[in-house]
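Ligand-bound model needed. nicotinamide-adenine-dinucleotide.
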Amino acid sequence: DRPLLAGRHALVTGASSGIGMAVARDLAGAGAAVAVNYRSGQEAAEALVEEIRAAGGRAVALRGDVSSEDEVAALVRSTEEAFGGIDLLVANSGIQKDAPIGEMSLQDWQAVVSVNLTGQFLCCREAIRAFRRGPERPGRARGAIVCMSSVHELIPWAGRVNYAATKGGIRMMMQTLAQEVAAERIRVNAVAPGAIRTPINEEAWGTEEALRKLLRLIPYGRIGEPEDVARAVTWLASDEADYVTGTTLFVDGGMSLYPEFVGNG
Ligand code: NAD
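Prediction:
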């Protein structure tokens, strides 16, 4: 059997850690050549590239800040140069800078918007431009994008208005782009993780008490692992999902299902 992503060329942003790292590893395992973007975390990115190469795959590590227009253009160009093209983007980089509204500085707002929303806009735009430069794939999508959203594209989140606003924005950006480029056979989708065990939210699972509180929000009864998200991304990116565009796939153990209603009906 041909691996799901054989012959595909991917860029994954923020792949030196957490979900992005698991996604890059899973795409490579499915046969894609993978550009592993990092901003900080060069060592982790290079170790992942070595791991992928040792397993017989193709990978490069590429430094770049997704909130910089020039750096994103260079990232996409470097991916094309490394692999002879690009047909898959996973726009994953994201940050949190939490504060109650009275204390949230304009800087905290702008930092999160710049990385989470503007960063994904820039990556999507450059990837779509590159897909247009690339060859058509008869009978298949010529390019696919997976945006990393969150259950907070749907669930409001007190004390994180900057983060929740960016994820709501990603939802409408993703749907609008999907509508705009569908006729060119470019697919755009999102994955919305619930609570996943990564460095971004260690305070939510790092102690037994925090974890117990968190699990009350998850009907499925366990925290998510980066690999849970990675497998969903690989599927959405693959030709198995060829007729899927403009959709958000929730990978959240039921977190978005109003868990407080369980046993309360
Ligand atoms: P993480 O902190 O482990 O990873 C974030 C990644 O983004 C890191 O690799 C970081 O270097 C990178 N990054 C930050 N700023 C960047 C910039 N300016 N340019 C390039 N890269 C940059 O956290 P994670 O949990 O793996 O988060 C990945 C994505 O998943 C984020 O978009 C986050 O919002 C989303 N998400 C995470 C969870 C969760 O529970 N962990 C839930 C929902 C959504």
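Residues 96 and 163 are 6 Å apart (CA to CA).
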